[in-house]
Amino acid sequence: MLIEEKRQQMIELALTYGLTAKETIQCSQELDELLNIQLREALASKQHHYSLSKSAYLRIE
């Protein structure tokens, strides 16, 4: 839920200060970092799952 909260904060800052305001840009960068972390975790989980399923398949043969 942290991503949605940060997104809402960014929207509110943009409406208050404008899209190019220092506060809005900073919040946008923080949101980007949260999204990047989520993406890295999702990719790592997917690779781990693939690795496990592949090793299970190899053991069956």
Describe this structure in words.
The chain has 61 residues and is mainly α. It has one domain: MYOD Basic-Helix-Loop-Helix Domain, subunit B (Irregular), CATH 4.10.280.10. It has two helices and no strands. Helix 1 packs antiparallel against helix 2. The longest helix is centred in the C-terminal third of the chain and has 39 residues. The chain is elongated, with a radius of gyration of 19 Å. The model has no long low-confidence stretch (mean pLDDT 88).
> In angstroms, what is the radius of gyration?
19 Å
Mean pLDDT rating: 88
Continuous helix count: 2
Question: What's the CATH topology name?
Answer: MYOD Basic-Helix-Loop-Helix Domain, subunit B
Shape field: elongated
Protein name: Aspartyl-phosphate phosphatase Spo0E family protein
InterPro entries: HLH_DNA-bd_sf, Spo0E-like, Spo0E-like_phosphatase, Spo0E-like_sf
What does the secondary structure layout of this molecule look like, with pairings?
Layout (H helix, E strand, L loop, with lengths): L1 H16 L4 H39 L1
Helix pairs in contact: 1-2
Care to give the gist of this entry?
The protein has 61 residues and is mainly alpha-helical.
What key phrases describe this protein's structure?
61 residues; mainly alpha; MYOD Basic-Helix-Loop-Helix Domain, subunit B; elongated
